Amino acid sequence: MWTLPLGEESEHFVVFNDAELAQLAASGLAEINGGDASRTSILNAPIPVDADMAGKLQKLHAEFEPEALDSRIDVEVGKLDAIVGEAAWALEGRHCRGSHRNDQ
Fold it and tell me: Of 50, 51, 53, 84, which one's alpha carbon is 20 to 30 angstroms from that of 100?
């Protein structure tokens, strides 16, 4: 028998008679946010039906981990910084050329 605790205190749990089913349920229930699982969140959890679907769910979950999102955000911010830097340089160049003409 395999038991899957529900919530941080493990007061409630689900019992499985098959290891694969327990692993599939665990991968789906890992998607529940927060420490304690409500009945509604358990019933609405995306429980995969096979190992292939579980792998896809884990990959999707990994893509939205805070560390992964922070890394992707940093890349995009870097791109924006480069664009803004180039635009500021171009505007500064125009400003300097324009004020030089006015000095003559």
Answer: 84
